[in-house]
Task: structure prediction
Amino acid sequence: MSKVSYYTEEGLKKLREELRILKDIERPNASRAIGEARDKGDLSENAEYDAAKEAQGMLEMKISKLEETLAGARLIDESQLDATKILVLSKVKIKNQTNGMEMNYTLVADGEADLASGKISVNSPIGKGLLGKSVGEVAEIQVPNGVLKFDILEISR
Result:
């Protein structure tokens, strides 16, 4: 049984495009590589053939995993989300109580997380600690170095 995970329309589109590329481009390339290696002679001592078969196996495993992810993927209806609490797809502005640094994050599903663009997973320690909080509350988040305390300054969509 596949695990249900929630995605934005953009995230779901990326997953589908990645699967299409793997199936329509990478899979034929892997088959071609096996065919070329097979044409080089004795398969029992053909390292190229073994490498091509192993690469094909890894590709098929990646395709299978992506198909399983897509089977459990659900599109998030942003209009149904409560804007007063931090939920998936919330844009939050938080302030670290220790150093006074302010940060902006968007909480997203695991597959869409990208710290460089300010998108953190709802399953990350910070994401989990922020979920359900409202403006004015303090989120206490357990991290390996101890407990971080963040003031929730803003929540938006």
Summary: The chain is about 40% helix and 25% strand. The chain has a mean pLDDT of 86.
